[in-house]
């Protein structure tokens, strides 16, 4: 699978979101201000990951738009009430703490922007005032309180009771950690500490089960924000070396999220708890952004916390959900127009396993995740190069080509002989593994979840080939409504499903 092509296509889609008739704002989604922050985060990551070129005129327009929509006492992204197409959704939106900091952090990292650094520092000081010692929010501490529509009262959360702030402080934690890594500002780290301490207690449990409040049918929770909070807790633990945060997120992923909130197929709902947006069968609409979040959590746990088995999850989420859900030209159906706004996109979809469409912030969120996954196909460790995921990849040190035919194959060529480890999928039979170096069969030396090929076994330009069986199996997934899908697998890819959802189904109909 050529992940670079999919990331590049996603980058073009990000540019296609910009509406020339409305000052190149990303219109038609959840909220222009929110989607602008997501645009900047995604497009800069695509640039960094695959060398994507952002046209100068679109970058200049988008930067001016970012200045306009943060030109307020808090430096927080919000819609301008005096602009007609933004006015209906002009509100004080703490959901955008994260999006604003992601955009500013990206501009600091990629453009060394002093303006972005100053804006981010100002917003951090605002959030620091808003987030109280017990984790509640006091919105009266914001400069825009009373200037824009918002909650009836400034206090978010009741003292002494469980409350959910994953959609505000929780989801912004990962952006704070990345901001600290760019600026080294101790005020950012201290705010991160306060938010992380609260959410470790309120948003996780020791045994890894999801706190009951999040999945209470009366609570309107947000899956992407909950996943974002877990990502922030994990990044904070990795940054500070506090193992309790890493262990707690691992437990939550393994016991509360994996195969529960996110099914094996990668399906996961937009809503946690109360179903606010049901489809025709009464099931929650699905959000691939949360699948991408889960893939990143699994990736970081694998590479930074020794949970190598979770790399199987990362690759399965890409192959069984994120790639099939992306709208490509090949997906065009008669009577369904695919525009520049649609091509390469992802979105919230009503059908459980179909219905590709553009939802700007979702498209940007998945693009963010796909960039991270692409960047970590190959990494370096103390033992040398690692091939973590079986996707095509090339840089000055290594070329990886992955194919699926009768068997799975991953071919590796190094620029110079050196130690390399190639991941062995945990789902393939051990007896099916075959490793060759320059066509000669070589015994497999395992290091954890990898096959290790020392540099002494190679010469310049050696061809390393690992092949393995793609076992077939059939599973069933039951949706909250009771609707059951029968899924045919080949390895970690879905090759058939019944019933098949449309329009624009993700998978072929199951052969009966």
Summarize the structure in short.
This protein is α+β, with helices and mostly antiparallel strands. It is 39% helix and 16% strand. The protein has two domains: 3-381, Glycosyltransferase (Alpha/alpha barrel), CATH 1.50.10; 408-468, no CATH class.
Question: What report would you give on this structure?
Answer:
- The protein folds into two domains: 3-381, Glycosyltransferase, CATH 1.50.10; 408-468, no CATH class.
- The chain is built from 13 helices and 20 strands.
- It has helices at residues 3-16, 32-50, 56-69, 96-111, 114-130, 166-183, 186-202, 212-215, 223-240, 243-257, 288-305, 311-325, 360-375; strands at residues 18-19, 25-26, 137-138, 155-156, 220-222, 271-273, 378-381, 384-387, 393-394, 398-404, 408-414, 420-423, 434-437, 440-441, 445-447, 450-453, 463-468, 472-478, 484-490, 493-498.
- The longest helix has 19 residues, at 32-50.
